[in-house]
Amino acid sequence: FFHFYAGICSALKLTVPSHTIHGIEGQPLHLTVDYNFNATASEIQIIWLFERSQSNPKYLLGSVNQRVVPDLEYQHKFTLIPPNASLRINPLHLSDEGNYIVKVNVRGNETIAASQKIQVAVDVPVTKPTVHTEPSSGVVEYVGNITLKCTVARGTRVAYHWMKNGKRLHAGPNYTFS
């Protein structure tokens, strides 16, 4: 579950997830955004921008009264889901990590606006680990040492745990870890 917070500007309330959203590389990601206002609206405009650190924000797409105008470069990747301001990213790539800015403008007697920022982190699934034995022939019981090396080809936030008979191994006279 996400905790939500709202940015209130005049009578327009824009609700976005308050914590970093984690998506999985290659999978779709849905950024849920809701808005409401207590004014009569003749036009509702939604704009989505993307910014990476040390770079200018890029326009992704926008809409006026639910008519979506995409940036042609990204039109197959980003989708606006009316009637709310939610954004769908499909598929998610590592380069999509950064801040997504949503801005809503409501024009009635006056124009009211609100914007929020959503931070997105992209996780790469951990590949199946491979274990190498040195020496490769194994070791004769009671003689010498053996080194087991575990590696993964890809993955974010990888943690290694060695187990023996279903129980976690800890450093001691028989085991050293590096």
Total beta strands: 16
The CATH homology group name of the largest domain: Immunoglobulins
Round the mean pLDDT to the nearest integer and report it: 87
Assembly classification? single chain
Protein name: HECA2 protein
Membrane topology: Single-pass type I membrane protein
GO biological process, one term: centrosome cycle
Keywords: Cytoplasm, Disulfide bond, Glycoprotein, Immunoglobulin domain, Membrane, Signal, Transmembrane, Transmembrane helix
What does this entry show, briefly?
About 0% of the residues lie in helices and about 50% in strands. By secondary structure, it is mainly β. It folds into two domains: about 10-125, Immunoglobulin-like, CATH 2.60.40; about 130-170, no CATH class.
Would you write up a description of this structure?
It is found in: Cytoplasm; Endomembrane system. Residues 129-178 form the Ig-like domain. It is a single-pass type I membrane protein. Keywords: Cytoplasm, Disulfide bond, Glycoprotein, Immunoglobulin domain, Membrane, Signal, Transmembrane, Transmembrane helix. The structure is a single chain. With 178 residues, the chain is an all-beta fold. It folds into two domains: 12-123, Immunoglobulin-like, CATH 2.60.40; 130-168, no CATH class. The protein has no helices and 16 strands. It has strands at residues 4-9, 12-17, 21-24, 29-31, 34-37, 43-51, 58-64, 67-70, 78-81, 86-89, 98-107, 111-123, 130-134, 147-151, 163-164, 167-168. A six-stranded mixed beta sheet has the order 3-12-11-6-7-8, with no helix packed on it.
